[in-house]
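quick one, 235 residues, struct below
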Amino acid sequence: MSLKRRTILDSFNNAIDGVTYTLKTQRNMRIHFAAAVAILVAALFFKLSKVEVLVLFITISLVLIAELINTSIETVVDLVTQEFHPLARRAKHLAAGAVLVAALNAVIVGYLLFFDRISEAVPLVYQRVIALPPYLTFVALIMVILFVIIGKVRTGSNSLLRGGMPSGHTAIAFSIATAVFFLSQNGLVITLTLLLSLLTAESRWEAGIHSVREIVTGALIGILLTVAVFQLYRF
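---
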């Protein structure tokens, strides 16, 4: 019985299957993929040059390739042995280290490509909202907290402080980040605040307290309500 000859189309389909498998099973791959989409969307607004776009694509590809290789190594190690072995542990750590290096490189490239552009755009935004009073932040936070409480009550959450729809911690974190965006003219401060918000959201998911849907809903509540408060004041 002769083996079926593989075609180029078969190889292509197998490769796609490998990517989709990694997206379905690996949380870090989904995070990298979402970040890549967000960065590419941001690139459209900041009018990067051809060379900068090329660097961006190469950087994103390196992160995704490293994650694919990491997943393949983990799969092979698990196939060879299901018992703890120092060398198996070392192999997985080395593969994870490759992903870390690629991710750190992506952060540096992103900083070099976007920071100056963000810093130039921030003063323009700042001039438009410089007259906004700081107490608007507290008004926005109160509205976000009330909206979260209403959401938890309506969805039958057993606890107002832990779990349930939506994620209150995430909503408050992104509300603060949005307020900082409006009130601060420092691009670095805005970036760090956003990163802290993302870490807050990630920690709620990592601890198993909230689902992705609850976290995303909380983030949207925090952002949209805060934007609404600041925009309504202008009218």
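The chain is about 80% helix and 0% strand.
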